[in-house]
Every structure is written in structure tokens, then in C-alpha cells.
Amino acid sequence: MNPEIDISNVTLKTERLLIRPWRQSDLDDFYSYASVDGVGQMAGWKPHESKEESKIILDMFISHKKTFALEYQGKVIGSVGIEKYNETHFPEFENKKCREIGYVLSKEYWGQGLMPEALKEVIRFLFENANLDVIFCGHFLWNEQSHRVQEKSGFKHYAFDTYETAFGTTEENEVTILKREDWVLQ
């Protein structure tokens, strides 16, 4: 089952990151990375073509209260969203509290270990504060970077599936999961 999660009053910290709700003042930083070719496609969406497009999505992040901004050295460089997992595809989890996380990081910061650092803290929050039993994640089969982030974060292979992107393609993807009992042992 997908329990409700509201992160509007949640702020998390790691050694290098402030993980917090989005603010209207983040628009320039958001557009700066979301408009770069190669960033959104890794998560199934096209680069933003205008600040107006970014503003619409930023407003959604704020109103839906389920997406964290990742702030590094005073600048927002990415996000971690806590999405609803597909209950129809995975009915075996109907008696477990589950959500799916998705993430994106500015191309300028790839390869510095920032996303595994952010996910480690968001995962801790989801298990300790939101009391989830299972966290889903996924990546397109061709996205080796995201695969590595998930491995480093403790996720294990669960299934292969398909994903409809925002730009109308269907991608093969790997679904990974992290169970609370496995996370406790890490």
C-alpha cells in the first residue's frame, strides 16, 4: 500500500547536503539543471524548454509535498521524489507500507557521490520516520549510473518492467527494492 507522506516540514542534513522542501526562490537553480540535455532523459522527461515550464513543475513539487530539493553549497542541484509505487504491478506488497523514490542530479555534479549520500539520508527518514516496510526504485536498463547509485544505496534486483516516459517512449527498466529488514543490517 502507498501511505501518505508529507515532507513539507522535513529538513534532513548530510555531510555535504541540505535535503529540504522546494521553495519558489529555487526556480533559477531548478531551471539551470533541468534545462540541460541528458539530465531529464535519465529519468524519462525532456529538458525544460523555458523557466515557465520549470515554474509549473516547481509549483507541483511544492503543492504535492513529496519531493525534496538537494541543496549543495547554497545551490539546488537535484531532487529526490517520494512517489507512489505501482500497486497493480506488485500486488504481493498490498499489506506492506511502500513507496518508490526517484531522483535527478545536475550533470555538473555527477560522479561525486552526492546522490548516494542524499539517498542514504532519505532512506533513513523513510524507514525511521515514515515507517515504510519497502522502498522501490528503478532505472532504465541503459542507465548504468543510476544502477550504480541504487547498488550503493542497498537496493536489490526485484523485477524487470517497462516504463512510459513523459516523451512517449516505452523503456525497459529494472525495478529494485530495499526492505526495512535488509536496511537495518547494513
Automatic annotation (TrEMBL):
Pfam families: Acetyltransf_3. Coiled coil: none annotated. InterPro entries: Acyl_CoA_acyltransferase, GNAT_dom, N-acetyltransferase. GO terms for molecular function: protein-N-terminal-alanine acetyltransferase activity. GO terms for cellular component: cytoplasm. Residues 17-176 form the N-acetyltransferase domain. Keywords: Acyltransferase, Transferase. Belongs to the acetyltransferase family. RimJ subfamily. This is Acetyltransferase, GNAT family. It comes from Ruminococcus callidus ATCC 27760.
